[in-house]
Amino acid sequence: MNLRVVLFTSFSAIAATCGVAMADVTASTATDPNARIAPRVSSLLGAERKFVGSVGAEHLGKVAEPFIDKSGAIARIRPEPRPVTYSRKFLSKLPKATGGADLRCLAEALYFEARGESVKGQFAVAEVILNRVDHPLYPDSVCGVVNQGTGRKWQCQFTYTCDGLAEVIRERRAYDRGAKIAKLMIDGSERRLTKGATHYHTTAVNPKWNKAFPKTAKIGSHIFYRQAVPQRFAKR
Q1: Is the pLDDT of residue 195 over 90?
Q2: Does the pTM of the predicted model rise above 0.70?
């Protein structure tokens, strides 16, 4: 794309979002290939700075807000999430999932915690982990949530990380399915199964903590619960 167009697009998009007129912001339409590019770039940058300065911090904050994560860092802009169907057939049509550490941590958690569940049940467990990432009482990364308490016998949040058994992936197809689920969820697929759940347990156990949180769903052999955000973290 022409550099002139890139620069113009960046501040015209802000103008459209903020509802600010661009009467004083113009870009050269010169197409002479022999013209020196430096003066043109300088002129465009100057116009962009002038325009951004005229918008004001409040408007710019509204534009930037969706792309700032809870730590204040600039978040990666993600593509529109793919619509999800909770079936193996749907997953089989997706390409092999690739990604960074968080995808691997979530895929492993689904494999060791929920590979015996239905596809829907595995999506539900993924929701719990990502809901914790968003919750102020838990780590703010997938790997941080999955490995919280790891190394302390029976003090971890996810049993497989502290049960003393080697974490060996022997069912590659099951892992690959979990990785596809992990990618879909990390990429922003809607969390519509567990109503914001942050905890779950199997129907085979009855832990004491389940009396403290409201039950939100039962999917397969898992029962889900939601931990409220403490008042001190509530938005004013």
Answers
A1: yes
A2: no
